[in-house]
Design goal:
By secondary structure, the protein is mostly helical. Helices cover 72% and strands 0% of the residues. The longest helix is centred in the first third of the chain and has 35 residues.
Length: 206
């Protein structure tokens, strides 16, 4: 027969342990926020900082604790959504190996900025463009096409891989949208090259 007192004791331990974990998580989040704000100018908070100020503070904070790069960037973005793309890029610059995780975590906090976040991080770490696009699209699948297109615009040489990885992560075929972005970019480049051709003035010897 199960001892009721033992059951209650075990349950109390489980509840206490869960509460401790919750408090630890909250304390950790507070520590991250405090670390970021310690790198901001005096009197400036994450909420009142400009994107440049917050990005610089995030970069300094990640430099001190690179393993927490994604959490640091996500914390800053949640506090100041307008700076999401800037803080994600700053964190990725300090820890390129975590670029996809950083972009995904920030996009999860600010889904409306997912495409900008992915593009900014991919511009900073172009060799991870496809992984970044896939990770962010997995977090915000409703914007998969916009995300893939934005990243492909930044890193057009990886367009095919970007479309492939995004489809693998979301089940959504974004190849046509990505191809359209790349085609448009190529047309603009061709037009610019044509515009740069100097036409000799009439009557010249050229």
């Amino acid at each position: 027969m199960i001892d009721a007192r033992q059951m209650l004791k075990s349950l109390a331990i489980v509840v206490a342990f869960g509460a401790a974990l919750g408090l630890s998580g909250a304390a950790l989040a507070q520590d991250v926020a405090a670390d970021i704000e310690a790198n901001l100018p005096e009197g400036v908070t994450m909420e009142t900082a400009t994107p440049d100020q917050l990005a610089a503070a995030v970069a300094d904070t990640v430099a001190d604790n690179p393993d927490a790069a994604a959490e640091i960037a996500a914390t800053a973005a949640a506090a100041n959504p307008d700076a999401a793309a800037d803080v994600a890029a700053a964190a990725a610059a300090e820890n390129p190996d975590a670029a996809a995780e950083i972009a995904a975590d920030v996009a999860a906090q600010v889904p409306d900025a997912a495409a900008d976040v992915a593009a900014s991080v991919a511009a900073e770490v172009p060799e991870a463009a496809a992984e970044i696009a896939g990770a962010v699209a997995a977090e915000v699948p409703d914007s998969a096409g916009e995300i893939a297109s934005a990243v492909a615009e930044e890193v057009p040489e990886a367009a095919d891989e970007i479309a492939e990885v995004v489809e693998e992560e979301t089940g959504i075929d974004v190849s046509e949208e990505v191809a359209a972005v790349v085609d448009e970019q190529q047309e603009e480049q061709q037009q610019e090259e044509e515009d740069e051709v100097v036409v000799p003035p009439a009557g010249s010897d050229a």
